[in-house]
Amino acid sequence: MERLERALFRLEQGFELQFRLGPTLQGTEVQVYTNYPAKGHKFDRLKFRPLDWVYPNGREDDCDKYCRLDLMVAGSYQYYFSCGDKEKVGGGYIIVDPVLRVGANDVILPLDCICSQTYLAKCLGPLDKWLDRVRVAKETGYNMIHFTPLQKLGVSGFCYSMADQLELNPDFSPEGKHYTWGDVGNLVETLRKDWNMVCISDVVYNHTAVSSGWIHLHPECGYNLVNSPHLKPAWLLDRALWHLSFEVADGKFSEQGVPALFQDEWNMNALRGVLWHQVFSRLRLWEFLQVRVDEAVEQFRQRLQAGSGVGSSPECKKQLKVVQDPQHRRFGNTVDMNSALDIFTPHSMSPSDIQECCICFKKRLEELNSGLYNEMNHHAEQAISCIVGNVVYERLSDQGPKLGPVTRKYPLCSRYFSFPFKEMTFDEEMQLMEQREKACHFLAHDGFVKGNDLLRNCAEPRSEAYLRRELVCQADTIKLRYGEKPEDCPYLWAHMKTYTEMTAKVFSGVCLVNCLSTPLHVAEHMLDQARSLRPDLYVVAEPMISSEELQNVCVTRLGITSLIRDAMGAAERQKEEGSLSWFGGEPVGAFFQPSLQPLIPAVTHTMFMDVSPNNHSPIQMCSVYDFLPRSTLVSMACCSTGSIRGYDELLPCQISAVREDHQYTCWNSEARTRDQVNLQTGILAGKLALNRLHQELAAEGFTQVYVEQLDEGVVAVTRHCPSSHQSMVAVLRRAIKNPETQRHTEDVSPMFIPGHIQEVVLEAVTNSNKKEDKNINGLPECTVEIQEHIQLKDSKMVKKADMVSKHNSVYQEIMFEKFTPGCVVIFRVTPEPRSQEQLGALRHHLIQFSSQYQTGSLAEHSTPSILTAPLRIIMSKLTLADMNMLLYRCDAEEREDGGGCYNIPSWLPLNYGGLQGLMSVMAEIRPKNYLGHPLCDNLRQGDWLMDYVSERLLAKGGAVGEVGQWFQAMFGYLKNIPRYLVPCYFDSIIQGAYTCALEAAFKYMSSFVQNGSSLVKQLALGSVQMCGVGHSWALPTLSPHLKDVPCHLSEVTNQVEQCCVALAAGLPHFCTGVLRCWGRDTFISLRGLLLLTGRHLEARNIILAFAGTLHHGLIPSLLGQGSSVRYNCRDAVWWWLQSIQEYCTLVPNGVSILKCPVRRMYPTDVSGPQPTEAWDQPLYDVIQEAMQSHMQGISFRESNAGPQLDSNMNDEGFNVEAGVDQTTGFTYGGNRFNCGTWMNKMGESEKAHNKGIPATPRDGSAVEIVGLCKSTVRWIVKLHNDGHFPYAAVNIPREGQTYSVSYVEWDLKIQENFEKKFYISHDPQDPEEKQPELVHKRGIYKDSLGASSPWCDYQLRPNFPIAMMVAPELFTVEKAWEALGVAEKKLLGPLGMKTLDPDDMVYCGVYDNNLDNDNFNRAKGFNYHQGPEWLWPVGYFLRAKLYFAKKMGKQTYDETVNLVKNILSRHAVHLERSLWKGLPELTNENGQHCLFSCECQTSSMATILEVLYDL
Question: For residues 65 and 32, what is the distance between their CA atoms, to the nearest angstrom?
């Protein structure tokens, strides 16, 4: 969750909204609050309630828990969340759309079905005539009437300037009648019930008419000179300009070049001079900003003489603080004397020093006044520019109204303030300014500032718009002043509340006029009142700002349902490429989304209008030939649509919202007179067809849109239904320029429509009779010739229509003729019969995955046999090893079988040959409907990817082959549907099969996985990902006496062979051949990926297979199929023994494994590998041999030692030694030329001279190996005591005799010596510390003991937490806890653990294996374990934290659990975002991606899964 106050989230009623924790919040105490009302409660914007957390798995798991809201009430709702003791850490808004209902049965009118027509109320005439006039909308297919305000208007007649918000316009009541709001409500209800039409009306909150009686009784409701004295300079300027206008009209300045009738630029320059000298210079407005210098100096002198201290120099450069005069009088501002005394302090209290100080103070005041003078002059310059610019527009510009000479009716510039008194001289007016009872009636007019932040109130003190004459003023309105809350202006808030409630009772919705000029908190409050009476209030507004973010602030806070967009804007853009946001809907061929999906920011729902009420006359702006095409463009949009009365009648002069007294014509289907219209008028017949079509498309689910520019002025719009796959394709030719005066070509490029054209729904052409009658009513000068529902052969615009094959699909090629501007043709298109049949069958088979495919599905007469059973039945036959083949296998693994991963041309190969490779890419494409992705292009262009998926599986035969058959059959349908639909259905097939496969896989796994969180399940899939069967990495043969060993018939030998899975160490680098099976990595990972997931049989087989390779008391670091082994690591055997212990503990009757036969490859230390018929022995004997070998001491040289085995190793490095210190019981081994632990980087660079030198030899007793040894010895003691292990001791040959060391004794030695030798205490005099000069951190545990380089023992590394976890009894709780704290502070990264203390001089956190320079510590990746952050140690660190936290007490444990959850959330995010769907081997410092790391590491996923198990 984030701060999303400016993001728009829209949902329909009936949806469930879930709030889930983001990664940074997991492991913290988070509470979500909302003001969405609880069931049965009323909405209160200020009342928030906490939401309860839901735990779907019954466990308190932060990964999956969520809060929920069932959205059943329309409106705008806020949410926020707290985190710990921090309130409102983040939040945002949710908009729930209203549901509109019409008809006697309250049938739902979907928002996308709306066809609205705007009526200027003043043109409707008496109320008893309204039905006749509004019937025009009904008969032409509209289902919404939008009325401008029905209230009494001001004297200007401007339809948005209301004289009284509560009084119905008296013009609606003819003589002898008095209609009321109740009569209007009855008419509106009649329209809703009988005509199925919804009515909405405008509301205006930001101004009232100048003639409003109530504003003069309550002048505090406006901005006047009493409550807003900062406007005094602007008011003076306004009055001066008013008087100047009279003087210009009277010719006073004609000789100075400013006549009443302006002619040219020379007049404008002269006007500038007159304004400066006659207005601004005389007004001396700078005095409103300045300070009276002499008074201030005298006051300052008196304060000094009263005894201020001596201090700094009088030449101090600090700024004086000016105190604003609250009454804004000339020279009313003063200086803060405290700040003045702080700045200007005399050296002494002598008169001369005081005088000197006062002189400095006066000089600073004069400088200050000079700056304020310049500031006001800057305002004056801007004001003059604005005045002159306005005069140019109004009187000279061709785009302006050409007002003519300056007169009283048309003054030089608009008045910014009302003046409700008789005319008087300017000097007399100035005196009124200080008379409160008069000054309160000088009210500021409303307006807006071009380019200004419209959320900013231009009448407030922070704005100088009135002074700078930047306002586009509406001189017949008064700007209303609400304040911040109802108490600031009680009458105004109460008056407007009554107005709002009255409107909401009558109308189904409101249109917010001047939405962005209305204070947000006011509109918010009023709409809350409206929704309390009408919850499903439809709210529409017209945007007046280009910033989408600021627009979203209004939309989200007010709960605006639709924003008005004007098709004139579309005309200006010309290129309507793609699915533009205001067309709504999804792109054609959009992907099918899952029922539970992330809520992503949306665009505001649109009311797309062919012309908006505030636009200029469309005929004045463009040709009449554009009317019908523009209406078609609008009607094809997947959103609400609208028009204004008069547009369909082709009025040559659009009715003015300001001046017209015209009344609308009535409907008469028979006759046509000047005051009547019918379908023969203008484009009414075309509009009826278009409105019907628009509503049909929305009702029948044509939710997908594609807009394409075919030629200049020729646009094609496709609406597509994703269930039936029918399309409506409208082709229209616009007339941006008048075709009668501009040349145009009749040739139009052919169009290719995929599918079969069923009919021509509408064909229309605009004809002109070229008459010049200027009557306001519809005229016979233009007619529209229309044909509806005809066959293609009967079309007058289609010359030829042939079926052609193109891009692997069948298209209908349309050749147009006489397709001139003003022409429209709309086709109904269906897939050709074969495609329709295949689509129906495909959807039928997809129903098993989701019911959304039910619509449009079609059962076949003959279904392929493989499809007769649900896929889950086929999937249930697969083993988890089969799942590895179905879902995963990287390119290297695929190439082992002669294949490879699919390569997408112009992009990248997939990461996996299996379904996960596709799912990872589709998960990026699907939510965004990114149909232009190269994968989608590849699918549309050919069947290669489909064939790859099915043939890859078919080649495997068996149960996997059956799944391949299923894909082959499903793709058989897919290959025969229109290519533009292939990507979305391919995704549906792959997604359905993938989900089915996961469900089947989890059924094989433990209850821990089945009932676990999403993170548990994702990590458990690592078991499937990393466990596979392959001939190049087959495990050594198991004993034939062992039961339940999986076998198969070899394709190579045609013999039955064992086929046990082997764990890959990492993808993509360690997954095939010799490099796949690492003894150490296998057994670090075995507990997490096999035992905890319930794969006990596979775990047993791997344990026994490696047991068979025991040689010299060690198991191999690299298995190499058992015959190409390397025995050069000291720790792998201890991880193997730890895994056997875990098996015995976790698996029911797990100790039985100890008696399982092991087929030995190396019966003696001197023998080579034996054939598979070699001898067996029970596992407990092999374990005893390993323990005995270590106690006796191991010393050998690797077989085949030399450059042919390892080209980087020095000769000494091939000598392997290991043993047990008889004094301490610690295992030890290695030398300075080899590296026998997991930190096994061997230097490779000759340039840097590190070749053959281990970066981290860790010889001596490595801390984690000592811990693993202790764990094993302790376990063997228990096994022997329980009768499961026949040996109680190991034997040591010494001086020709054999000595016995019991396991009890061995265990005790390690226990007694561990903390003595490994803990670095805080005591500098610790007698156990032999080399205190090497200590650089205390309170930690050594990394090793007895290293050939002694300082290495003292390095802080992440290895001691491993010992803590396997042998916690070795550690004192408090010491362990402190050491873990140091590790957390110094080593813990975002995903992994730093492999070396960053304070260490050789630390380097960036691993680059390609770098070869002279840097000894970095060249050729020498720092592999010297800083980069490895992931698998994090698992042991977190488990150790949890273990010891529990012993530290409940509070510490709870805090640690939260820490662990928070850390694990980062792994969850990485897993979710990773295209490999795995956790990496390592990262560079601070969690940065490392190019040389495995993208998926077995041990990383295993140990993190173990943490989740411990939680």
Answer: 12
| Residue 153 half-sphere exposure toward CB, CA atoms < 13 A | 21
CA atoms within 13 A on the CB side of 206: 22
Phi, psi (rounded to 5 degrees) for 162: -95, 130
Structure tokens at 974: 């897919």
Instruction: Report DSSP state, residue 468.
Output: T
What is the C-alpha separation between 793 and 821, in angstroms, rounded?
A: 22
Q: Which of 140, 89, 1375 is nearest to 682 (CA)?
A: 140
CA distance 1065 to 1072: 9
Is pLDDT above 80 for 1329? yes
The pTM of the full predicted model, rounded to 2 decimals, is 0.89
- Average the pLDDT over 1405-1418 and give the result: 96
Share the mean pLDDT of the chain: 91
Query: Both tokens of residue 42?
Result: 């009323």
Per-residue pLDDT reduced to its tens digit, 662-672: 889 999 988 66
> Which H or E element spans position 991?
helix 982-1003
3-state secondary structure of 1171: coil
Amino acid at 923: A
Alpha carbon distance 465, 655 (integer Å): 31
C-alpha 1050, offset from chain centre: 50
Radius of gyration of the chain (CA): 43
Rounded to whole angstroms, the maximal C-alpha distance in the chain is 135
- Condensed to tens digits (0 to 9), the pLDDT of residues 487-521 reads 999 999 999 999 999 999 999 999 999 887 899 99
Name every residue whose Cβ is closer than 8 Å to that of residue 427 and which is 6 or more positions away in sequence. Answer: none
What is the distance between the alpha carbons of residues 24 and 1459, in angstroms, rounded to a whole number? Answer: 11
Report which residue type is found at 1377. Answer: W
Q: How far apart are CA 1194 and CA 1128, in angstroms?
A: 12
Cα of first residue to Cα of last residue in the chain, in angstroms, is: 24
Find tokens 């691993």 and name the residue.
1407
Could you tell me if residue 1122 is left (phi over 0), alpha (psi between -120 and 50 degrees) or otherwise beta? left
Q: Where are the alpha helices (DSSP H) in 564-683?
A: 567-573, 618-621, 627-635
Q: What is the DSSP letter of 321?
A: P
Mode of pairing for the β-strands spanning 10-11 and 86-96? parallel
**How far is it, in rounded angstroms, from Cα 437 to Cα 422?**
16
- Give 874-924 pLDDT, tens digit per residue: 999 999 999 999 999 999 999 988 899 999 998 999 999 999 999 999 999
| 577-605 pLDDT tens trace | 433 677 888 999 999 999 888 888 888 89
The answer to whether the beta carbons of residues 1116 and 1127 sit under 8 Å apart is yes
* Cα angle, residue 811 at apex, residues 810 and 813 outer, rounded to 5°: 145
Band of residue 315 on the pLDDT scale cut at 50, 70, 90: very low
Band of the pLDDT at 544, cuts 50, 70, 90? low
User: Looking at the DSSP assignment, which residues form a beta bridge with residue 1388?
Assistant: 1393
In one-letter notation, the amino acid at residue 498 is: T
For residues 519 and 485, what is the distance between their CA atoms, to the nearest angstrom? 11
Tokens encoding 1385: 């502070």
CA distance 1051 to 1029: 14
DSSP class per residue in 78-138: EEEEEETTEEEEEEEEEEE---EEETTTTEEE-GGG-EEEEE-GGGS-SGGGHHHHHHHHH
What is the SS3 assignment for 790? Answer: strand
Phi/psi-derived region of residue 157, left when phi > 0, alpha when psi is between -120 and 50, beta in every other case: left
Instruction: Yes or no: say if 1225 and 1309 are a contact pair by the CB < 8 Å rule.
Output: yes
What does DSSP assign to residue 1164? S
**Site of tokens 């070869």:** 1412
| 3 state SS of 826 | strand
pLDDT at 19 over 70: yes
Asked, as a colleague might, if the bond just before 1068 is cis with ω within 30 of 0, I would say yes
**Distance from C-alpha of 992 to C-alpha of 1317, rounded to nearest angstrom:** 58
Q: Which two structure tokens, joined as six digits, stand for 1055?
A: 């013999």
